[in-house]
Amino acid sequence: MLQGKKIILGITGSIAAYKTAVLVRLLVKQGAEVKVIMTTAAKDFVTPLVLSTLSKNDVLSDIANNDSWANHVMLGRWADIMLIAPLSCNTLAKMANGLCDNLLMAVYLSATCPVVVAPAMDEDMWHHTSTKDNLKKLSSFSNHIIPVANGELASGLIGEGRMAEPENIVEWLDHFFLNKLELKGKKILVTAGPTYEALDPVRFIGNHSSGKMGIALAAEMQSRGANVTLVLGPSIITAPENIEVIKVKSASEMYEACISRFDKMDIAVMSAAVADYTPVNIASEKIKKNDDSFTIELTKTKDILKSLGEKKTDKQFLVGFALETNNEKAYALKKLQTKNADMIVLNSLNDIGAGFGHDTNKITIFDRGGKEYNFDTKSKQEVAKDIVNTIIKLLHA
Ligand code: CTP
After folding, report:
1. Which residue owns the Cα nearest ligand 1 atom 21?
2. Whose CA is nearest to atom 9 of ligand 1?
């Protein structure tokens, strides 16, 4: 669940800071990217060198360092979550009152991501009325609080106030991201790849689609909690193991696979490059080169996206793609309308780094009302994130 998650770990001055070495190690092991910010007091309990080695990132501490400035605003925007562990009594009081006298506080006050704290202090401090009031304030600011544990304290006393164990903090984060999954429980149908229209037992009419974009989309949706069914044309790329894959060859097989499943779906994303025409006759034996010229009679395939658009209910969300070489915007908007889609993703073959075979793509999205969303050239994984974010935004619009 923490794979690829960006985490800022703020460490403050408490004896429990020594446990953050284990915490960072556990987070990194789970695939998270961790950037550590320490207060000056935290350095008395654990060294920046240990944490930079384990996090594989520089440890930040000062707003300004020689000639460089730590961009606290961008740090808060970079992170998926900001975790402050251990949270000392002093930093708790600063957070409750909006004080900004170090980098950690500057990042906290400008963070747009969720913030979670794991307090750590001796029992008497923990039970002080001001601590309780400050924690209430933190909750009222929508910060999350990981409960303290009961046990042996640095003072030698036994009681409440110990920082939650690193394993429990990781478990808390796991649950947090699991519950936050935006597409949790949604059933999504995705088509990807080319189709092959057979001419005879050895030949076919196909196209250059690799299926990379659709597979990246299916993986992104799955990682956000959706149940994805991927209808995949002949592609050499393998889909992630946790996705249900229906392998098809021709446009008519893809049509059958989609139409028979669509009723149960919440969302359908048609990213496949489906053949528009298919041979009227498929020779049962290999066609011999007896004549100087050879004519193939083709007939139109069924338009899958259009058929789903005709069946679509108000509760279903339909996404189409448009691959164009000219008059891109006009053609994309026409497809959006004629196929009754809720959103269309335009790829222009005129854009460098876009289209078949590339590892990158450049897209423009149009919603039902014709509103345009522009994106830069990015890896197909990043493009998949943009498409999924836009779907989620429009679902909640
Ligand atoms: N599509 C489909 N079934 C087809 C043809 C296309 O579902 N038989 C879908 C594609 O998956 C895509 C959208 O329709 O989501 C647009 O595909 P595109 O090839 O750009 O356009 P076409 O509708 O085929 O029209 P044209 O080839 O004339 O541009």
Report:
1. 322
2. 305
Do 290 and 350 share a domain, yes or no?
A: yes
Tens digits of residue pLDDT in 149-184: 988 888 777 888 999 999 999 999 998 987 788 899
Based on the domain organization, do 129 and 219 belong to the same domain? no
**372: Cβ–Cβ under 8 A, 6 or more apart, which residues?**
329, 364, 365, 366
Are residue 35 and residue 127 in the same domain, yes or no? yes
Active site residue 207: yes
**What's the CA-to-centroid distance between 274 and ligand 1, angstroms?**
6
The whole-angstrom separation of Cα 203 and Cα 283 is 10
d(CA 165, CA 163): 6
- The Å distance, Cα 12 to ligand 1 centre, comes to 56
Task: State which of 152, 179, 206 marks the end of a domain.
Answer: 179
Ligand 1 site residues (CB inside 6 A) read 191, 251, 270, 272, 274, 276, 301, 303-305, 320-323, 335
State the virtual CA torsion across 277, 281, 286, 290 in degrees, nearest 10: -100
Residue pLDDT, tens place only, 219-273: 999 988 899 999 999 999 988 888 999 999 999 999 999 999 999 999 999 999 9
Q: What percent of the chain has pLDDT over 90?
A: 80
Rounded Cα–Cα distance for residues 117 and 85 (Å): 6
Residue range(s) defining the domain that contains residue 321: 187-395
Residue 1 falls inside a structural domain: no
Helix (H, G, I), strand (E, B) or coil at 217: helix
Q: Do the domain assignments include residue 171? A: yes
Instruction: Give domain status of residue 168, yes or no.
Output: yes
